[in-house]
Write a structure and sequence with these properties.
Helix content: 40-55%
GO molecular function: ADP-dependent NAD(P)H-hydrate dehydratase activity; ATP binding; metal ion binding; NAD(P)HX epimerase activity
Largest sheet: 10 strands, mixed
Binding site for K(+): 49, 109, 145
Shape: elongated
CATH topology of the largest domain: UDP-N-acetylmuramoyl-L-alanine:D-glutamate ligase
CATH class of the largest domain: Alpha Beta
Number of strands: 17
Distance between the termini: 34 Å
Cofactor: Mg(2+); K(+)
Family: In the N-terminal section; belongs to the NnrE/AIBP family. Belongs to the NnrE/AIBP family.
Subunit structure: Homotetramer.
Strand content: 15-25%
Length: 478
């Protein structure tokens, strides 16, 4: 956004005019949200975010609202537009340490914006604690102070805002956790910067939504049949661990795959057969069995990992499918099987088209990509993108703020997955949904994005008390 602001100024836009629109938008929101406030307390920082605060304070005073300004730095030290805003404010201000909360106060946080990349000073941390202890409502300007706009991580301490007013577009810190929980309701205000300047700096990072996959998803036609809708195969674990594969298979069937087969060890056939109706069953015990199974070219898409158990066989099966040109969703035990052999996995799926989707949770991500997981300088989207480049496939970095990343540099953040998904078997269901979408012909990134979205929507439709069985049954096609 700093580069966007600079580009706007270079095109002849009045930078102070942009600041005035931003600050006045915050004032308008404050008056609308808290018409009964006894006093608006505006906390002004040392940069342009503080300048927005001074503009806001001036607008509140013009509206007749009781307003008090507390400054982090001596106003004489301000420069540029921030200095002009402070001068135009023309009211008095006090040092930050003079602020004492009063019942009826509404705090407008204009200390630091989205560009914060360091720990907040001790006096700010103490102020945040004071405001939090007093349970005062906070309106954040751009982003709650203390949050890193690129990662959503807390830099020492951060305000918990009831409302955030940001400008032109949301930032990653508004969507990634814990930032999402600290922003409250986020309002995006267009201050008049040409959108082409924003797009030029935004990069290929999106909030996950149907527009990502809609153009590549083929709608069912009247002449379609089950084979045209795709055949999904899910590998089963041993006879004592067959449930995870069945969850994946059922989710794949519900998500629209025309046929779904569980490829089961001979010893687990009976355990699987007793639970299956529309889902087919095949005996696949070893590499030779898999070779025979792959002779049918219609068997293009596979899920490997849920409840699978055997790491050596998992590696052999995954490599075989990569070499055979198949699509694979690698989950759970399949991911862990490659913890010391990631290069082998990447080599097996080399090629122009991306055919591999890997779906790790936090622990599995650290096992498969330890050097990336340990890099504290990277935000979650950057970690997911680095992992996608390393493995040559799409990475679904799961969590309450799941990030889907492609080796071509695209990434999406899911923001509507409910906490009820934190239940055993939920990831198995997701793997089956993504597999079904791959089987139907969606490219890997689009299939992963759609799968994550459908997974969250199914959970929302079930509501509290969700189990993985409920989740699989609630899946709808894209």
């Amino acid at each position: 956004m700093a580069r966007v602001d600079a580009a706007a100024a270079a095109t002849g836009q009045d930078s102070y005019g942009l600041m005035r629109r931003a600050g006045e938008a915050v004032a308008a929101s404050a008056l609308r949200l808290y018409p009964g406030a006894l006093r608006f307390v505006v906390l002004c920082g040392p940069g342009n975010n503080g300048g927005d605060g001074y503009v806001c304070a001036a607008a509140l005073r013009r509206a007749g609202a009781a307003t008090a300004v507390f400054a982090l730095v001596d106003p004489a030290r301000l420069k540029g537009d921030a200095k002009r805003a402070q001068t135009d404010y023309s009211g008095t201000s006090q040092g930050m340490t003079a602020f004492e909360p009063v019942s009826g106060d509404v705090v407008i946080d204009a200390l630091f914006g989205a560009g914060l990349a360091r720990e907040v000073p001790a006096e700010v941390s103490e102020l945040i604690q004071k405001v939090t202890a007093a349970a005062l409502p906070v309106i954040a300007v751009d982003l709650p102070s203390g949050l890193d706009g690129g990662s959503g991580q807390v830099r020492g301490a951060a305000f918990r805002a009831s409302h955030t007013v940001t400008f032109m577009a949301r930032k990653p810190g508004h969507v990634l956790l814990p930032g999402r929980d600290l922003c409250g309701e986020v309002e995006v205000f267009d201050i008049g910067i040409p959108w082409r300047l924003v797009e030029a700096e935004a990069g290929p990072l999106h909030v996950n939504n149907p527009a990502i996959w809609r153009a590549t998803h083929r709608v069912l036609g009247t002449s379609d049949h089950k084979y045209r809708r795709g055949h999904l195969t899910v590998f089963s674990g041993p006879e004592t661990a067959t449930g995870a594969a069945r969850l994946s298979a059922m989710a794949g069937l519900k998500a629209g795959a025309g046929l779904v087969t569980i490829a089961s060890p001979q010893a687990a056939l009976a355990a699987n057969a007793v639970h299956l109706t529309a889902i087919m069953l095949a005996s696949v015990d070893n590499d030779r069995d898999l070779q025979v199974y792959l002779e049918d070219a219609r068997r293009r898409t596979f899920v490997l990992g849920p409840g699978f158990g055997d790491p050596e066989k998992a590696r052999a099966f995954a490599v075989r499918m990569g070499q055979a040109g198949r699509h694979l969703v690698l989950d759970a035990d399949g991911i862990t099987a490659f913890r010391l052999d990631r290069h082998r996995l990447a080599t097996a799926f080399e090629g122009e088209a991306v055919r591999l989707v890997v779906t790790p949770h936090e622990g599995e991500f650290a096992r498969l990509f330890p050097e990336i997981a340990e890099d504290g300088t990277l935000a979650k989207p950057a970690k997911a993108l680095a992992a996608a480049a390393a493995v040559g496939g799409v990475v679904v970095y799961k969590g309450a703020d799941t990030v889907i990343a492609s080796p071509d540099g695209r990434a999406a953040i899911e923001e509507h997955a409910p906490p009820s998904l934190a239940t055993a078997g939920s990831g198995d269901v997701l793997a089956g949904i993504v597999g079904a979408l791959l089987a139907q012909g969606l490219p890997a990134f689009e299939a992963a994005c759609a799968g994550v979205h459908l997974h969250g929507q199914a959970a929302l439709s079930v509501g509290p008390g969700l189990t993985a069985e409920d989740l699989a049954g609630a899946v709808l096609p894209a």
